[in-house]
Amino acid sequence: MARKAKELFIKTADIIIENKNYLTELDAAIGDGDHGVNLARGFNKLKEKLKAESFESRSELFKLTAMTLISNVGGASGPLYGTAFLNISKVISENELSLDDLIDISEEAIAGIQKRGKAEAGEKTMLDTIIPAAESLKNSRANNLDLNTALNNCLQAAAEGMENTIEMQATKGRASYLGERSIGHQDPGATSAYLMIKTFIENSLK
Fold it and tell me: Residue 135: which domain range?
């Protein structure tokens, strides 16, 4: 299980690195213009560590990912994503992940980001992608949907959440300085969160 998770994080790193310029362009419109550069640097470092080491558990792998991002990604995104992965490392199962497991993981990630960033849904941040994705998983459980359907619905909810940030006014971070001028731009953090969720889901569908 840890080997598969390791491969998944390497693929995620590749996606973030490939989208470095895109994420940076999004951030240049409403932020410091370094979101893509910062994340790519952190994920490059993560790739190096993953390829050099083997892992006994998913928990160990998530913890290494968390600490690597916290140490190597500048700005707010490193600590935020790092805290999310660190929280996940404390609860992730070593068995085949069920829908209940995925809900627990998403709730821990959200709790970590909210505690660290003091943010809520609707403030034009990465949470506007992650919270709808988590809510979709809960809706799928309530409707007794199978795991594949739940994952597809989750990905759609994440995409819609990301796109909804275009019409939001930022109230957190650098983008909040722009006030109404932040409206009309897709949030870079919501976009990087979507890219990660998309990679996780597309490589987990059976």
Answer: 2-202
